[in-house]
Amino acid sequence: MLAYNPHWLDNTQIQEQIKNWFKKNLITQEQSFLIQQHYPASFYTPNAFIRIGLGFFAAILLGAAQLFFWVVVGLATGGDEMFGIVGFFYLIQSMGCFFILESFIKRRHHYASGIDDILLYTTVGEMIAGMCLLSPYIDDPIPYFCIGLPFLVIGAVRYIDRILTLLAYGCLLTIMLLIVNKIPGLALYLLPFTGIGFSLTAYFLVRKYQKLHHLRYWSGNFQIVEIVSLITFYLSGNFLFIQESAEELFGLPVVPMGWFFWTFTLSVPLGYMYLGLKNKDRGMLWIGLGCVAFAVFTFRTYFYVMPLPYAASLAGGFLFVLAYVAIQYLKKGIPGFTYEPEDTNKPVFLEAEALVVAQTFGHAQTPENDLSFGGGKFGGGGAGGDF
Amino acid sequence: MHKHILNELSTKGLISETQSKQIESYEASKPFSLHWELKTVLYLGVILLNLGLGWLIYDNIDSIGHGVIIGGIAAICIACFAYTYRSRVPFSWQQTESASPYYDYLLLLGCLMFVILEGYLQYQYEIFGTRYGLATFIPMTFFFGVAYFFDHRGALSLAITALASWLGVAVTPADILSSNDFGDSKLVWTGVLLGVILCALAFFSEQQNRKKHFAFTYLNFGIHILFIASLSGLMILETWVVFLPLLILTTTFFIWYARNRASLYFMVVALIYGYIALTYLVFQIRWSYTYTIHEGDIYFYTLYFMSSCAAIIVFLLKYKTILRIKNTEQ
């Protein structure tokens, strides 16, 4: 079922864990060396930037190769007639990509190299496009989503791919919502609860699977579903989201059961934060932070409290003080929590962090430009070239 | 997961029974770190304060309350610098530990408030008159001073942005393409100059071991402005004689840099920019030979893309052997 060598996948896990324990001085250097020898993994997994570079150039190469293929075939069959068999060509190309992908994995042991990623997405994308083009035209999106779903799932499972997992989740949720939307009269009431129910089911199923040892290779996929189901759960009950969709789909200016959705909008983010801290669940905590921001935005959309600059200043001050107090408390010592960073001294992390700091801080000077003091001719970011 | 690994290791006899117990108790009692979460909240706080207060002045510029707001912002600015000055760690040419978790963010807030104040004073009282150069020169020197004195990379980014706008170039990621008119040869040359200066500064700080960790920030601004300016020199000004050697030189420099410093980010960025230049050249040369679009052109172009990308992929797969980088743990 797995495209990658499962023993090596296990061994990479062990090696990662060993590096971590070695850094914490829990095992000796000789032991660490011996264990690395004992559990070899010969995957080709490059540095993150090399992966991006490989993916970038592999994508251009594939695009050009396909164009080349089309031109050759198009000239051979003579122009217009080939339009009807576009879908067929997609299938051939997809199969071609599939064989290249498998040989890169089997012979060159690529794993998360950028090349295997791009090949996988091309294989799945063209397979779905080809299938959809070959099937008879129907004025309803549901069958097309149903055609796509199995390929997304197979790709996600066989190649342990997180992006395909995400797409498969979105695809299944969309199918459910589209079906419920067909129920006359009740659709309006059922849609939000379909989203809520679907997300909850996915969340608890995935939590259960994550504990099963024989499914350990897919823990990354489960993690993605866990996070995205928390997001779709919140969106399914968020007032702004519901109101906008109701207006879009049913032309309703006022949503029924507004009180329920308002309670949901304001309480779920706090619930996430609370549960995230209580269960030491980092994913839930981050989603909670994001949902709090979205809840504030939702509230501001419908209730005017104060002008935006005041709100931003006050919120900024509040957040700063909040973090200050939290750090002070943590330094005094709260059992189970710490302010000390977890040891992630991987070079990739350090480089990426420096990048983010440079980009965002450098950009922090541009807001001044919005003030357009003196026509933006002096000061920070966007001064023109006229002096 | 770690329990299964522990089991596996102790049954194979690779770790002792006591070690296994130690590790287990370590994993069980490991505290939950809130480091990045709280840092993000601090950072968001600074961003929102900067946005809100900057906007507030702008909104109230002619009303009675603005004196209060200006006073408030000045007070925040002074308080930030007073705090950071008092709790600073002694100056060193090496990277220093922050005095406290808020230290970096208060310093950043102080710098941003300084920008707002300076902008206000110029708008209201025209303290620099029409000498706009001075209005960017002062924050630039101030930020460079702050960056080196307090060892702060955020202030360094602000200083580089100010240096660029003093020279008349926008370097922030969102504006680098939209706010610059690269058809202007003066701007292109300024961009090249700025890029070279920044790369030289990066090189200097590493060679002389003076704030070595600033090199990345210098180089990151430098590489993008240098490449974008030279590419526009090539494509818009069409001064091939100058910009083609410059581009080849720059790409080679960054690949060499990657070899010496094992900095793969700069190598990949340089390869992508270099590839854009190469593609442009190939298209131009092909065009100058034919001046019309031929039927066979599509073969030529697709084959060019296929072979060139394949070559770069091979290079990226084997760069360690090609550049003779010794195999070190990445």
TrEMBL record, chain A:
The chain crosses the membrane at residues 52-76, 82-105, 117-136, 142-159, 164-180, 186-206, 218-237, 257-277, 284-304, 310-330. Keywords: Membrane, Transmembrane, Transmembrane helix. It comes from the Bacteria. This is Uncharacterized protein.
From TrEMBL, chain B:
Keywords: Membrane, Transmembrane, Transmembrane helix. The keyword Transmembrane applies. The keyword Chaperone does not apply. Pfam families: DUF2157 (PF09925). The chain crosses the membrane at residues 40-58, 64-85, 105-123, 129-150, 155-174, 186-204, 216-234, 240-257, 264-283, 298-317. Residues 9-154 form the DUF2157 domain. InterPro entries: DUF2157. This is DUF2157 domain-containing protein. It comes from Xanthocytophaga flava.
